[in-house]
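User: I'm writing a tutorial on reading structure tokens. Could you give me a worked example: one chain, its sequence, then its tokens, then a sentence or two explaining what the tokens reveal?
Assistant: Sure. Here is the example chain.
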Amino acid sequence: MQPTHTQSAQGKEYAHRINRVVRYIESHLGDPLPMETLADIAAFSVHHFHRIFKRTMNENVHAFVNRLRVEKAAKLLLFQPERPLIDIALACGLQSSAHFARVFKQHTGLSATEYRSRFRLDAVLANFLRHTGAQTEAADERRRMLEEKYDRLAIKVMSLPERQAVCCTYYGPILTDDVGPSTGAVFAKVEGWMKARDLLTCDSQYIGLIPDDPYITPPDKHRYMACITTDLPFDPIHDIERVTILGGKYAVIYMEGQSDVIRDLAHLVSIQWLPLSPYLWDTSRNHIQIFHNNPQLDPERIVRVEFCIPVIAK
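And here are its predicted structure tokens:
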């Protein structure tokens, strides 16, 4: 985490403890999450835990949990249009139809049924293409370019191994038109930390994990986890975490281009290819970016990356 009191050694230690809680919440969204359990994970009293969590995350723990649950529900409503609402509610830890209806509407302003109807994937796709092809000649040309690049993409479904990584999380908008200097700075921080401890190896990979859907999560709540893999043992400290990048089946797409083009192509794969494929988005794993270069060192700012969507068979 990156708390508001990052200059304080105590603040960094508190951030390290809150990290553990957030990872637990993410992996147990479908389960009850009593405050006592979360406070125990952070090694705080319940009262102290509430204060430290809000100070660290700029959001109280109840609001954070409900927001993640609603965002997961929203994505399931989009990508699994035939799935019953109560099934989605239970999968997201919203334990009754009434609870689901109340919390979902509080966050989105719509009922789940209204949301599913308004944001059908075919409508989302059409709106996205209209947006990228606004009423200018340059925008129309860009839309044609995206469609041509999309048609040439080679999408392979393959099993990726589980990996251990050193990780630091960036907080802030990630849907930008350039290679993000802030995310680049976080990778540089992880790299420097690992170099100082001889943790980099010839097999280390630079991997970005995307725990939130940036098209659903509010921009000020976006998170991006900058990870570098290593097989060597290490002790995490403060905002440097040890994470396991989950293996399993992924739809893997290698892409080269400017950051904004890569971003839009990845979104097209998610909303156009995935719904027509024999696969579903796997809610238990993050989207992955495996970098093959450092875009900020490229004179043309070209990104070379494998974008990996976690999938399961329908």
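What the tokens reveal: Strands lie at 155-160, 163-171, 206-210, 223-229, 241-245, 248-257, 279-281, 287-291, 303-313. The longest strand covers residues 303-313.
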